[in-house]
UniProtKB/TrEMBL annotation:
GO molecular function annotations of the record: small GTPase binding; zinc ion binding
Protein name: RabBD domain-containing protein
Species assigned in the record: Daphnia pulex (Water flea)
One example of a Gene Ontology biological process annotation: exocytosis
InterPro entries found in the cross-reference section: Rab_BD, Rim-like, RIM_Znf, Znf_FYVE-rel, Znf_FYVE_PHD, Znf_RING/FYVE/PHD
Residue stretches making up the RabBD domain: 3-128
GO CC annotation terms, alphabetical: membrane
Pfam families assigned to the protein according to its UniProt record, in alphabetical order: RIM2a_ZnF (PF22601)
UniProt domain FYVE-type: residue ranges: 67-117
Length: 128
């Protein structure tokens, strides 16, 4: 964004304002970088999950009673929890309860939770 017209200010005032604007710009760049890293993390996680479940399927493994995210945890009840958003069945390490404003409690997997954090920061939903 263009610098505002500071010609009517004293040299000191101008220096102060310019340093504030520079600091603000640096902070915005850092925030952008953090969000970009989080977006990369979401995509990597998603890819890893997809590859793992494809490998499991090729091996003919029974996925029903196993967490679909870590593929390690076996569900005692054979079911686990289904994510409210993407329907993936996951264990308590790979998901958790989220209380909505309506005091309703839903189960959300880590992937959807990370996506939502990004939406909150960027206003954009990251598609799979």
């Amino acid at each position: 964004s263009p610098m505002p017209d500071l010609s009517h200010l004293t040299e000191d005032e101008r220096r102060i304002i310019e340093s504030v604007l520079m600091r603000q710009r640096r902070e915005e760049e850092q925030e952008t970088e953090i969000v970009r890293r989080q977006a990369d993390e979401v995509l990597l996680l998603e890819t890893a999950i997809r590859q793992r479940s494809e490998q499991q399927r090729k091996a003919g493994a029974e996925l029903d009673a196993t967490c679909q995210l870590c593929l390690k945890t076996k569900f005692a009840d054979g079911l686990g929890h289904a994510c409210h958003y993407c329907n993936v069945r996951c264990c308590a390490r790979c998901g958790g309860k989220v209380a909505l404003r309506s005091s309703k409690v839903i189960w959300v997997c880590i992937l959807c939770r990370k996506k939502q954090e990004l939406v909150v920061k960027t206003g954009k939903w990251i598609l799979p």
